[in-house]
Structures are given as structure tokens and as C-alpha cells.
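Lecture 7, part B: from sequences to assemblies.

Below are the input chains for today's worked example.
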Amino acid sequence: MRRGWRWLVPLAAVPVLTLLAYGFALNPRDVPSPLVGRPAASFALTSFDGARLQLSELRGKVVVVNFWASWCYPACYEEAPALERSWRAYRDRGVVVLGVAIQDKDEAARKFIDDFRLSFANAPDPGGKISVDYGVYGVPETFFIDRAGRIRAKHVGALSDQMFVQTVEPLLAEAPGATR
Amino acid sequence: MDLTTATSVRRVSVLLAALLLLATALATAQSAGPAAGAKPVSEQEVYEVAAQLRCVVCQTLSVADSPSEMAGQMRGIVREHLAAGETPAQVRQYFVDRYGDWILLAPPRRGFTLLVWLAPLVAVLAGVAVVAFRVSRWTRGRRPTPPPVDAAMRERIQRELEREA
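Predicted structure of the full complex, as C-alpha cells:
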């Protein structure tokens, strides 16, 4: 009887090890956002150039909101040229790229914009309200908003030209007035 | 003071009193509204909500404990919402709506994360059961029947005891 139960001891470790293996295989940065599919929170920003930006005024366009910071090296430095290139390629096709600098020093953020010659609108997020409204937990994070004002995709980490095209093209193909 | 002056003084004071009443009523009505934004919020109230929220840019720290800028901003948002008259539960929900359950330091007691709450309890109960089972076996096993003592042995023990004495 006692011998018969001995094999239970190592067997008890199996579920624990399985759980650990599952947990360690996950990417801790890959947190699913509950916001995908929901209407994008409206916001009003004042860009570094002093221009007023209002999300609600961009209804009907595909809006790409990119959260970045000048201290976010290397990911933000990798994606900045890609974002600028994509913006130039798509600006005449009804795509708006908006950069939001979070937890950044004004001067450092301006230098970043100058260094990468960013021509799309960029604005600071004083108080972090927009960051929290979009559930941002790190930089860079990019949100893709469809013509109906709904968040359709979220990307965590540096964005590439290819990802931009792959995400924006289907959103552009949707009819302007269509809601999902 | 002639009659007309006295009347006008009375009229002015009545008007003043009416205005004052109106102003008080307006002020009370305003502060009673949900969007007053003037409700005093103590550090403790902010702390209690912030302590339940995960600091999004840290590892294993709450929004209340983190010195990071992001956590500071989040405490500010908690304070603002509480000041606007929201309950702590509503403020927590505000963050859950945007970040998911991930933002809560204590996993919710439902679904898959219920396991986290139940597993230690199950483990303790199983441990108690195992210990109880083994202890009962040991105590039963440790009462062996005394080995039979034959006459020769009995005599020998008797002899040795006598020698000791």
C-alpha cells in the first residue's frame, strides 16, 4: 500500500511545472488591450507647434496614434523614421499620424522631433490623461483607429513600415461611412 | 430720516437678502451636483485606490508605492475622479476598462484567476489530510505487542536485577 502511493509525490510536481512552463513562455509585455474594437477615447491636444488637435475632427480618416518618448531608446528611435516614411506615403490617402510624447521633457521631445525631421503632428500629454485613456503601459505603443472612430488594432513595440501598411490598408479599404 | 428714504433702505436690504439667499441656494445646488470637482479628497482615500492598482511601468509595485512619473500621474487621475464624486470602485473600474484586469494587483476572484485564490487553500487542506493520515498510521504502528519472554529469559532478568540491587 505504502509503496503504491510513492509515485504520487513526483507526479504532484507535474501541474506546478506545467503552470511554470506556461507562464515563462508568455511575453509579459504582451498584455491584450480591452480597448481594441471599442470607440477611441476622444482627446484634445496642443501640438508642439501650438496647433489644436482634436480626435473627433478626424472622423472619416484612418488615425494612427503613436505614443513615444525621447528617452525610449532604442525602440522609439527605430520606429520614428518608419512612421515618418509611412505618414508621407499615406497622408494623401486619408491617413493621419499623431504622435503623443508621454512623460517627456519638452526640450528633449522637441529635439527628438527635429532629429528625425518628423512632419506629422506631435503633442505632449501633460498629466498623462490620454495615456491612461488608451491604457498605455509603455512606449512605444501605437493605436490604429478606423474611419468610424473605433480602435481596431494596437501594437506594442517599434512599428515597422510593413506593419503600418498591413494594418492601415484594410482600414482604408473600408467604406468611409461603414461601421462594423 | 424721512419716510421715502426708510422705504428705499428697507427695499435695498430685502433685495440684498434675496440675492444672498439665491447665491447660497445656487452654491449648494452646484456642490451637490456630481460634477462639482470640489469634494475634498484625503491622501488616505487616494492611497486606498492607488494601492490596488499596478504601476504600469514598474515591476511588482503599486501605483501608491511607485515614485515613477507615470504612477504620480495616475495618482493625480485617481484624485480627480474621487473629487468628482466617484466611488473608489468606480475609479478602479475606470482603470480596468482601459487596462483590463491586468491593472489590478489582486487577481479577480472569478474565472481562471480564481485558481490563484483556491490553490493555496486546496494545498493546505491536502497537506493537513496527508499529515493526519500518516500520524494516525505511526501512532497505530508504534504500539507493538511485547515480544514473548520465555522462562529462561525471565529468570535471567530476575538474576541481573538482583545483582544490581
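Note for the exam: Chain B has a mean pLDDT of 82. Keep this in mind when comparing with the next example.
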